[in-house]
Amino acid sequence: MRPKECDIILGSDCFFEILRSGKIVGSKNEPIAQRTMFGWVVAGKLNVQNKEPNELYSHFLSTENDLKTDSLLQRFWETEELSVKKQFLSDEELFCEDHFQSTFKYNDQGRFIVKLPIYGDTSRLGNTKGIATSRCLQWKKDLKSIRTLKDSIKIL
Question: What is the pTM assigned to this prediction?
């Protein structure tokens, strides 16, 4: 038997969502049959006589009925539709998303670098470079005096 194309892979987060009421439990070392929205699933141990220690058995059973796989999958998606809400972004958020995508790059250390986004008219900022420079110089001066104060306290 050749492998077939996979129609769907289910994650553990939706496993219990596909289960339906109906379970047939055999005796010890016998498989369990569980009803799902796709039909019945059989899984578990088999009591196999004369089994070699490293021998593994795998069985596959497929039945055809009136519902084809496509219609089963469509029924699954209609029944278990994901609750993903469409997120609508504001103009500013869209601008930031686009800006990030178009300007980011990685440096030599593997960190990414992004240019600061400037949204809107920058002329409203005015000429603030002089004020910013003087404040920066004042902070440097304040930091130096704090370091000098710490050094003086250490000496005492």
Answer: 0.33
